[in-house]
Amino acid sequence: MGINQIIDELSALKSNIAEISEKVENQLRADILDNDDNKLLTVFVSRYMENRNLRSKMISQDLFSDPCWDILMDVFSARLNDKNISVSAVATAGNMPHTTGLRYIDTLEKIGYIYRERDDWDGRRIFVKMTDETFRMMKEYFLRVLQKSQEYRYS
User: What is the pTM of this model?
Assistant: First the structure.
């Protein structure tokens, strides 16, 4: 067996490994996203938000300013709990000034992560909703974090 044949076989093996890895990743993603049981995820996200609030109380918020993440967390949590969240509630997420919150809502809306929807019952109120793709992204992120936290606990 010549060196070129070994290189070809290694290249084919590398290609097969990459293909199998992609299939496993896609299956994992499908399993995560097809899971409609959000109870554990809802509790985990709620505790995550409580921990962030505790951090803000104990350590200067100026050190950990993350307004877009705070907004996404509030909107994601609302969707997990089948609740609506108003623009004014979202704009004050993370204890930021209202105008700053509105500016970040605009930013997240422009990049397609969230959108606004008028309340059918009260036309003066506008809700902030998360796009399906952003919801899947956030859900996958938190399920992976949850999975990792369980792995650390038992390792």
Answer: 0.70
